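ok new one. same drill as before - structure tokens go in, u give me an amino acid for every spot. 217 of them this time. try not to just spam alanines like last time pls lmao
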């Protein structure tokens, strides 16, 4: 799908004043963050991001309509400044016909990219139970190889290598997410726990989304 169609599709949702806008660009967290920044200029605020689609190949971002008066003022100003957005005209914060942020939007898009990446990576951060299951699977692999007439050394080596790769993956994921958390904290966000116990970052004054209101308890 072209950049124009992605933008037009999102702006159609916004034009209907939907409480929730779903952004599903084909590509990276950077593209999702760029579109999320555009939505913010129309009075929406970041809600969450997660993987979806075949083999979790897509990044989906959920934006919530901000009910505060300031958000409606921003929306009106954006519509006035970009009357042809979605129809080939200029789009707030992005270069013409692209998802590349303009210089004045680079920092804001970078923060949104961190939010998107932090939430998406939750899929790959294993808790203690998941780690135990993974390592038990490695042990089961070793046993199966022994029953398959493999030598003990070969079976242990195979199971050990899989366990090592899992350990590295767990460590890299945790380390990368911790660095993102540091950047978000430095940017003024505060950490909270959602209803599932997952760690999330919110702007000052923002609460976890309710049914359709990101400022509702």
């Amino acid at each position: 799908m072209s950049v124009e169609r992605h933008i037009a599709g999102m702006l159609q949702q916004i034009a209907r004043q939907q409480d929730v806008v779903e952004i599903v660009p084909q590509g990276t967290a950077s593209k999702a963050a760029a579109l999320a920044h555009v939505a913010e200029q129309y009075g929406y605020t970041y809600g969450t991001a997660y993987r979806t689609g075949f083999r979790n190949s897509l990044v989906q971002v959920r934006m919530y309509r901000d009910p505060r008066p300031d958000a409606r003022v921003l929306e009106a100003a954006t519509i006035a400044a970009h009357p042809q957005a979605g129809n080939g005209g200029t789009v707030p914060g992005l270069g013409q016909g692209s998802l590349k942020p303009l210089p004045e939007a680079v920092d804001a898009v970078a923060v949104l990219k961190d939010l998107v990446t932090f939430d998406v990576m939750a899929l790959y951060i294993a808790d203690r139970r998941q780690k135990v299951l993974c390592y038990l699977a490695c042990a089961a692999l070793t046993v199966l190889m022994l029953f398959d007439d493999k030598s003990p050394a070969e079976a242990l080596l195979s199971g050990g290598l899989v366990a090592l790769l899992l350990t590295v993956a767990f460590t890299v994921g945790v380390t990368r997410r911790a660095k993102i958390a540091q950047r978000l904290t430095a940017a003024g966000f505060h950490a909270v726990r959602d209803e599932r116990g997952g760690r999330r970052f919110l702007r000052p004054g923002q609460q976890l989304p309710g049914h359709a209101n990101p400022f509702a308890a």
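The mean pLDDT is 82. and btw The beta strands are 20-23, 44-52, 58-65, 190-193, 199-202.
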